[in-house]
Amino acid sequence: MPVTLAQAALNTQDDLDANIIDEFRKQSAILDSLLFHDTVSSMGGGSTLTYGYHRVVTERAAAFREINAEYTAAVATKARYSVDLKPLGGSFEIDRVLAQTARGAEVSFQLQQLIKATRTKFTDELVNGDTAVDANGFDGLDKALTGSDTEMFADSRGDWGTLTADTSMSALDLLDEFFGLLDGTPTLCIANQATCAKVRAIYRRANQYVEAPVAGLLDEFGNPVMRQRIGNVLLVDAGDKAGSSLPIVANRDPDNSVFTVTMPAGADGGTFKLQVTVNGDSEVTDDIDFDDDGAAVELAIEALANVGAGNGTTSGSAGGPHTVTFSGDLAGQTVVLSVAEQLVTDGGVQEDVVVAEVAATGGVTDLYAVRIGMDGFHGVAVSGQPLLNTWLPDFTRAGAVKTGECEMGPVAVALKATKAAAVLRNLRVR
User: Fold this and answer.
1) pLDDT tens track for 372-406
2) Separation CA 47–CA 39 (nearest Å)
3) Do 187 and 323 share a domain, yes or no?
4) Domains identified in the chain, total number
5) Residues 6+ apart with CB under 8 A from 430
6) Per-residue pLDDT reduced to its tens digit, 70-79
7) In this structure, are 220 and 264 located in the same domain?
């Protein structure tokens, strides 16, 4: 039968595991709301951790018929999908001297950080997961909804950059239309921090924004854990990727990113290197001579693995200034150009090469809505196994360094009906 984390905490026999589950619930409204279908069996020879299901792709219609006439036959269409469950978590190592000195504080700190990283990675996979990129994960909402009937604004944009009383009402109408794409009331509305701020402003003006406590869940100060609601829908900030300041629901530049690269006024020697960062992935060019022309700079930039031929067009005469345009495969991506190494000189004195962005029109992002249910969107777990397991370092045994672990699953997610989830694309929020 399906279980929630709250139910899993009641069923555990270990107080530590129950406390760990509560930490996951406090930190993640998504995990706290998600149903897990604990149906996959790992028992028996040849068994797998694969969950197969049918996704309703197109619903059928109904019609009146004439007396003495038959109905015209029609069917709902569905497609076969499967997902492989994978364990998610991590381990940490602590020297017994640190554990004795800190009196358990180091174990507690490392465990808290691991819990944070695990729930963040689960949320990241739920939104951005793609097994073609990471075979050890699962496919997320972004991949499942691309090209679907519940993908809104795929080829256009909505502008929430500046909200007034009038534009807020228009935005509220848009959200009503968006939520109406689902086959029922959405459970969660998932976005990044900037978008959540806009949504809160929209619903406050309509007197439909509230913060409500979660029954039986208290923070470290004994206060009720609060959740944000817009009407009957939970508003969830997906947060940042683990170990990064990049939001899980990314902000993108929908247009070409354009930069100028300018040499010092009296440059007469030396080299420099440029760094190109695409969606958080950074690469550094080989040396570029101070008097290279645009073609040579372009060659150095497009030699990078995260750029590629035709995507970093550069113009400019020998010695610059150069104009670098990231287009082609990089159009709509978040691209940053900066100087990685400054060795250009003027009369033997090092001077700075200056990089400036001249076409910053970024700030579009996406907003997701899901209806959680066994016939909609839900998690998948292994039958008869706990959702979360924790192993603390055992300092009673020989050995200077001990290992602790925390693991969720194996788990995955399933989308049983395309209309149980939707995405609103290309919202400009800045």
Assistant:
1) 998 899 988 888 787 888 888 888 888 899 898 88
2) 13
3) no
4) 2
5) 161, 194, 251, 362, 363
6) 888 887 787 8
7) no
